[in-house]
Amino acid sequence: MDTFERFKFSVDLSKAIGKAGLSKPTYIQEHSIPHVLEGKDVVGESSTGSGKTLAFGCGIIEKTLRNQGLQALVLTPTRELAEQVKNAICQFSEGKGLKIIAIYGGVSISPQISALRTAEVVIATPGRLKDHLQRGTINLSRVSILVLDEADRMLDMGFIDDIEMIIKSCPKKRQTMFFSATIPPEIDKLTRKHMNNPIKVSGVKHVDPKKLKQVYYDVQRGMKFSLLLHLLENETSSLVMVFCNTRRSTEMVVDSLKMNKMDAIAIHGGFAQNKRTKAIESFSKGKVGVLVCTDVAARGLHISGISHIYNYDIPITPVDYVHRIGRTARAGEEGIVVNLLCDYDHDNFSRLLREYKSIFIIEKIAVPTVKRAPIKQSQNTQRGEWSGRKPNNRFAHRGNRSHQHR
After folding, report:
1. Quick one: which of 204, 251, 270, 258 has its CA closest to 229?
2. How far is CA 105 from the centre of its chain?
3. CA neighbor of 256 nearest in space, from 232, 236, 279, 278
4. In this structure, are residues 142 and 71 in contact, taking their beta carbons and an 8 Å threshold?
5. Contact yes or no for 147/75 (Cβ under 8 A)
6. Would you say domain 4-202 falls under CATH 2.60.120.1200?
7. Which helix (H) or strand (E) holds 190?
8. What does the pLDDT look like over 24-78, one tens digit per residue?
9. Yes or no: is domain 212-405 CATH 3.40.50.300?
10. Region of residue 272 (phi > 0: left; psi between -120 and 50: alpha; otherwise: beta)
């Protein structure tokens, strides 16, 4: 049976799932929910947009009792993801009326302290949760379900010590679930240390090429921005995300797009929280169609309706690529990932292909004839975009013919 009925959810949860318009479980849901409901520990290797929140959330909703104190704890790397997870669990538990709160830094701690007195489900960032533990304003002694969402991101952000402290503050007898886009050695170590014979489920290895098309262009450095502009102007798209590796590159791209009358907005790690929130809101509501960002700025960002991902810079680590592409082709929709390569991207691209050669199909597309576009001048662009250096042609050995990388 290829529907949610096979899981025999409660009437309230089944109604909420139907109300959300969901009829068919995703891969990660289909293969993890039975174990989640049985109370087993689960390690889910699954990227953004795969349906993992419902995968672990169904267990929280079905097992958490009213007026019995804090019973379920979900850790997330960012405040945005904490809010999104909270909203999703609230949506699916509407008929049960659970007291669900999100706690994170950057806001007053006093309302959180008050809300924690009656909370039954808490979604938290590690830093703020550690603060509450040290203040004695949260009690984890009744936690029976512990979830680490985007676990690899939390480790990348340096939360390992906080996570260890939090896990040790929870009862040893509990259900533990880790969901992560990749399973690096650090996650493996945490798994062995804190989990009991976990069931491992991988959804990353099931990227449907019919739903998610991945392509790359090998372009001269001085024409990279011009190609991006050409594609944005000529491709039919809804919301678009353009990823860069640095703040400077992000600012150059967004300023150059605006110079060429392209409606775009940027976020990066240097943004104040209110400015970042305003930019994300403008993009998610479709007021601005193109969001240019760094990986750090996009952590925990979940926005529906993204049709295209452009990698203006190829990420240094393959895991960042997985997180980037997980923002399109969500919930059964189609998406396109476009990688723009010049000489300085080839090492990163080679690393990516080695890591996921058996999973991803990335097709080479011939570079079209493109008019050179004006670009926002800076010291960086003088040394980079306009340097005139010829690209390393290791990915151009087959001329202009379209081919595929597996």
Report:
1. 258
2. 20
3. 232
4. yes
5. yes
6. no
7. helix 185-194
8. 998 899 999 999 999 999 999 887 677 899 999 999 999 999 999 999 999 999 8
9. yes
10. beta
